[in-house]
Amino acid sequence: MRSIRRWLLVALLGTLLAAVAVAAAFTYASARAEIDGLLDEELRQVALSLRDHAFLDVEKLNRSAAAPEQGLLVQIDDARRPEPYRSRAVPPLPPAAGDGWADVQHEGQVWRVYTLAGAVQTIRVAQPLAQRREQALAATLRIVWPLLALLPLAGALIWWIVGRALRPLHALEDTLAQRAPTALAPLSAEGLPVELRPLVAALNGLLARLEGAFAQQRALTADAAHALRTPLAALTLQAQLAQRASEADRTAALQRLEHGVKRATHLVQQLLALARLDPEAARQPFAPVDLAALAREAADEVAPLAQAKRIALTVAAAPAVVQGLADALHMALVNLLDNAIRYTPEGGAIELRVQTDAIGAEIAVLDNGPGVSEDEWPQLFDRFYRGRDAAAGGSGLGLAIVAQVAAVHGGVAQAGRGLGDCGLGVRVTLPRQTPVN
Q1: Which one, 195, 196, 203, 228, has least CB within 10 Å?
Q2: Domain boundary assignment for the chain
Q3: 351 pairs with which residues across the strands?
């Protein structure tokens, strides 16, 4: 499991180590340049001091063969002598190309040589470059070593600081862990760091949505229990009557039982459809929907019901495309038509219209049935409301489903007059570009 605290410790210690390495490289380069400059000047000064002793008697000069710690090599080439004088027992340096400094390969290593030529004697002072590198490295280590020694202390300090910085997050974790599953009140952001406030705001938004979803589910469950109680009781009674009915009455009793089962089945289907239309449950991405084609499909689906009641069902659908959920819109159209067929008497008429304007599209289902009084129009979209004068059987959920579908698509459903300024007309308006779900 990935730990933020451990990751920060490793990242910060790695950064510090990289910074120390870069500082060490710069320190080494700077120390090397300084030492090279100082020792080059030392070579020159030694050569000049020897030159001031004109015509050195090399016979009297002592060779320091027994002192390997001596860093410098002095070589005096004398035209009067076959062998040059050397301060250390090493082979002679190769001939010089001219006065000044030069790097010379000698005895398997590079020497820094300063040459000062005279009329008779040529003085050459040399030093291995490896000695200079060792001095530069030693100076660098003296500076960097304390920093490396402090890294464990820095790691412990970083661990403690990060732990203190993460305390509000742990406190938030404890608060959430101690909450009951039903506690959906918003979290307090008081005293929290700025970095945690967006997280708390997102959690509060989620809790608010959960509260709304749970409230909706509780309401739906209560409504379903209330709505199913009567049909189920009626089914039980009808089954008992069918058992006790005589052979002549049993067929009629079974028909009533079958009708009750169908009504209960229709109610359950409507309840399930309403549950699927919960705004938090409809998470499918929107896509272009051809409302005209959808209207014709829905009309074809309910045509047998209309024909059974000799109802004239017509479709007037102009081309209209909106962004939405095709299945949900199809279900709304079927519910609108089913509701109109259910409450329109035999021989009546129903018209399904689809039209567009600059804002969006409108779906309208108009009938010439008995209609509903104007004061009841707003209540028609409430769950289980069937109207004061409703005579046909129904669940009271069809128009509630239509209103929910319209809401999911950012639209609205309204009731009004139907065909010939009578009956009932239900209009659903949908924007062309629906909100992102």
Answers
A1: 195
A2: 4-151, 197-275, 283-431
A3: 314, 366
Could you read off the pLDDT of 282-325 as tens digits, one per residue? 556 888 989 999 999 888 888 888 888 899 999 998 888 888 88
pLDDT tens digits for range 228-254: 665 666 677 777 777 777 777 777 777
Q: Which CATH architecture has domain 283-431?
A: 2-Layer Sandwich (3.30)
3.90.550, 3.40.1350, 3.10.450, 3.30.450: CATH of 4-151:
3.30.450
